[in-house]
């Protein structure tokens, strides 16, 4: 597991409510990945059993395992690396927040 030891600069400007909201959002994203992975394992176990014990013409179950596995891996990267890595997301959120505040106050 990758550990980000330093706090991104954008995190220092967040209020307690914003930190709470961001924590809930990240926890929800992680739970979503765990659920996605669990469904992947259950469904592909069933497909493997069907391929091996039922329809023995060819080992076709590897195709959904590989394709869906790529999706699960990319989902995991987006949740565990991009979602918290390097403050990229926080910087983008801060830029959008500042842009929206400028628009609200009338200045572009």
């Amino acid at each position: 597991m990758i550990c980000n030891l330093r706090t991104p600069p954008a995190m220092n400007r967040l209020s307690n409510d914003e930190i709470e909201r961001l924590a809930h959002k990240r926890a929800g994203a992680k739970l979503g990945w765990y659920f996605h992975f669990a469904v992947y394992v259950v469904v592909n176990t069933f497909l493997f059993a069907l391929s091996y014990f039922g329809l023995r013409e060819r080992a076709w179950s590897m195709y959904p395992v590989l394709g869906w596995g790529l999706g699960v891996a990319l989902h995991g990267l987006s949740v565990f690396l991009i979602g918290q890595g390097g403050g990229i997301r926080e910087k983008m959120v801060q830029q959008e927040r500042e842009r929206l505040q400028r628009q609200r106050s009338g200045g572009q």
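The radius of gyration is 21 Å. The CA atoms of residues 64 and 101 lie 46 Å apart.
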